[in-house]
Amino acid sequence: MENDPIIAKLKELFKTGILEVTEKSQRRVIVTINPDSLLNIAAYLYKDAGYRFIIASAIHTKRGFEIHYHFSLDSAGLILNLHVILDRNNPEVESLSNMFNASNWIEREMHELFGINFINHPNQDKLISEGNWAEGVYPYRKEFKSISDEKE
Amino acid sequence: MSRKTLIPIGPYHPLQEEPELFKLYCDGEIVRDIQWVTGYNHRSIEKLSESKTYEQVFFLVERICGICSTSHPFAFANAVEEIAGIEPTDRAKYIRSIIGELERIHSHLLWVGLAGHFLGYNTVFMWAWKYREPVLDLFEMITGNRNSYAMFRVGGVRRDIESDKIAAIRKILADVKTKTDLLTGAVMDDPVIHSRLKGVGILTKQDVLDYGAVGPTARASGVAIDVRKDDPYAAYPLVDWKVITAPEGDVFAKAEVRLLEMYESISIIEQCLKGLEKEKEGDIMVKVNEIPEGIGHGRAEAPRGEVFHFVVSDGSNSPARHKIRAPSYVNIATFKKSCVGQTIADATITLAGVDPCYCCTERMAVVYDIHSGEKIMNARELIDRSIRRSQDLMEELKKSK
Questions:
Q1: β-strands A78-86, A28-33: how paired?
Q2: What is the CA radius of gyration of chain B?
Q3: Which helix (H) or strand (E) holds B323?
Q4: What domains sit in chain B, N to C, each tagged with a CATH number?
Q5: Which candidate in B43, B46, B297 is best for mutational testing of the A interface (most A CBs within 10 A)?
Q6: What CA dihedral angle connects B64, B68, B72 and B78, to 10 degrees?
Q7: Cβ(A69)–Cβ(A29) under 8 Å?
Q8: Degrees (nearest 5) of the Cα angle A103, A109, A110?
Q9: List of domains in chain A
Q10: B366-369 and B156-157 beta bridge pairing
Q11: Which residues of B82-94 are buried (b: 16+ CB within 10 A; e: fewer)?
Q12: How far apart are CA A26 and CA A117, in angstroms?
């Protein structure tokens, strides 16, 4: 496949950090990594390999909290997801916002909606529900029940 | 310590996904810091989407944005089709691209009008909006709606563009083209617009990469990213067009990129219409069975930049997770770079330059002094300040002639 050199290079640089590589297609690659190596791999993608940070998506699953960090290599039309799986009870991962500002808001948002803690984030204040939402209630978690859910 | 004045812009902004409040911290005339507050109208569409079927989500995401209402269904269709491995027919692809490009034209015309209004060129405002009207009429003819067109489905489009409509579309497009010539000429040749917009609100290439800015905001800083070209979808790989860029990064470059993009859009639509004529009428849907388990990434180039949808499917009939990133989410953050150091009069147009924030300025509350709480000026006066600056420049030009 076209992506072989990209993946081979990643595997060579971050032997221990990479847990699994899934090539969905030529333009979509998902790299599951150890959360501890997130900073190093993201730094390589952003600074050396010319990737652009699109956004990150958090998901609450049976495995705990998963985050897909979507990176785009525009010259190849490639989306590379750095996929981390975080602990269910204490979801915590290093913030990328000291490297690029693009992740600042989305990390604040994930902190607010999922209760994931981003270590060393410059400002984890609430982004969208400032002043009108209870502390410690995370509406995007699967166990969250809205008022209309409870009535049923 | 110097005294700083707080100027609130907002808190209601009807044109964007969410109403918002910009707090400009000013030292005299100069903006020293900017803060963004939002969430006034958070609709939790990502969460709502989890409770709807794939077919229903289209109507939901269409309502994220009123102006670029087709870009979200576009990206969502791309994401779901990626999960299911569906390839729409060529006819459906052409129709999708036609809708996408018509939307770009009317959105850019809207921006040009509002930018003109802020600079005190109310004629530009009236003209641009007048020329936008036939495009909306076209939408009504093709889709039945002037806005929120409800054209997209997984596997194709909901309505066909019948052959007898093609001539009417061509006629209106030709008309829009001559009007665009007029507007482009008016903007590019006007010395006051040059002095108001050149060198104002500069965003460097590095800033763009740092904040992940997209769309005309990035392209006007010399970063040639466009999903239509980089990660082609719909009919974009089947037609010939080019990505417009400008190196300067100021508001003028952003206006230039948008104006020139309209010509590309017109050319894309013309080529798509030719393509449509070759395809069999009515062949607009492929059969869709179940959406299997998996994840899908959908991208579409909206008028404001890349829309990104990430859909996780668990094999049921509704998404297990649906993440949406609108282009303004990353573009607004760049104000921290582009507005700081500007005068208040220039901040108005810099905030408008990214194309998210114009109506809010109309809604500006009252400016008050942080320390004394004393009222200083109201919304009208702030816009007047920007208009007055253009008028002063016109006077100066007249004198020097």
A1: parallel
A2: 22
A3: strand B321-325
A4: 5-41+330-400 (3.30.390), 45-327 (1.10.645.10)
A5: B297
A6: 180
A7: no
A8: 90
A9: 4-144 (3.30.460.80)
A10: unpaired
A11: bbbebebbbbbbb
A12: 33
Q: Which residues of B360-396 are buried (b: 16+ CB within 10 A; e: fewer)?
A: bbbbbeebbeeeeeeeebebeebbeebbebbeebeee
CA–CA separation, B175 and A18 (whole Å): 56
The count of CB pairs under 8 A between chains A and B is 83
Q: Is B153 left (phi over 0), alpha (psi -120 to 50) or beta?
A: beta
Question: Digits of tens for pLDDT over chain B (401 positions)?
Answer: 456 788 777 665 433 445 677 788 888 888 888 887 776 667 788 888 988 999 999 999 988 877 888 999 999 999 999 999 999 999 999 999 999 999 999 999 988 888 888 788 888 889 999 999 999 999 999 999 998 899 999 999 999 999 999 999 999 999 999 999 998 988 888 888 888 889 888 999 999 999 999 999 999 999 999 999 999 999 999 999 999 999 999 999 999 999 999 999 999 999 999 999 999 888 999 999 899 999 999 999 999 899 999 999 999 999 999 999 988 888 888 888 888 888 877 877 787 776 653 332 233 334 445 455 555 555 566 667 777 777 887 888 888 77
Which ipTM value was assigned to this complex?
A: 0.93
Query: Are A37 and A14 within 8 A, CB to CB?
Result: yes
Phi, psi of A89 (to 5 degrees): -90, -30
For residue A27, which residues of chain B lie inside 8 Å, CB to CB? 231
Q: Which of residues 292-311 of B touch A (CB under 8 A)?
A: 294-295, 297, 299, 306, 308, 310
pTM for this entry: 0.89
**3-class SS of residue B157:** strand
Structure tokens, B378: 């109201």
> Which residue type occupies B383?
I
All residues at 6 or more sequence positions from B181 whose CB lies less than 8 Å from its CB, including other chains = none
Query: Within an 8 Å CB–CB cutoff, is residue B37 touching chain A?
Result: yes
Q: What is the CA radius of gyration of chain A?
A: 17
- Helix (H) or strand (E) run with residue B337 in it: helix B335-338
